[in-house]
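Entry 14. Structure prediction run on the chain below.
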Amino acid sequence: MLTQEEINNTNWSQSVAGVCIKDGKVLLARHTYGNGTGKLIIPGGYAKFGELPEEVVVREYQEETGITVKPENLLGIRFNEKDWYVVFAVSYVEGEARSDGDENSEVVWKDVQEALVDDTVPDLTKMMIKCALNTEGMGLTPYQTTRPRNELYTGLKA
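Output returned:
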C-alpha cells in the first residue's frame, strides 16, 4: 500500500518495465489489481519524480521481485496522448525471486516458450519477451552533452 508521500512523489504519466531472461526462463509476476489481476506480467511500475527510466526498472524489480537487475537495452516504447511506457531488456545480477505480497501474488521463473503460449500472459508481455529474444534492442550510446542525467539509446552499438 502506498503512503500519501509516495502517491504525491509518483509521476503517473511515466512507467517502465523490464524483461529478464535467465537460463531459458523469463521472470514474471502475477498481478493483483486492475485490468491485470491474475495475469503474469513483466515487472515494472511508475517513475518517481526525478528518476530516470533505468533507475525505475532497477527499483521496481527489487521492490516487486527481490531480484537485482541491470538495464541493458531498450526493447520498446509506447506513447499516447497522456503517458509513456518504456521496456528494457535487463540482465539478472542477484537475488531470489519472491512476491512483494502487495502488487503481485507470486513471482516465477517461467520457461520462455511456455510463457509465449500461456493464456494468463498478456499480449504486450508476450510481445516484449519476443523482442528480448529476437533483437539486440537499442543500447545506451555515449555522447557529449552539457545536460546532466541525459541518456541516449540507439540501435548503434558503442
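The chain is about 20% helix and 40% strand.
Filed with the rest of this week's runs.
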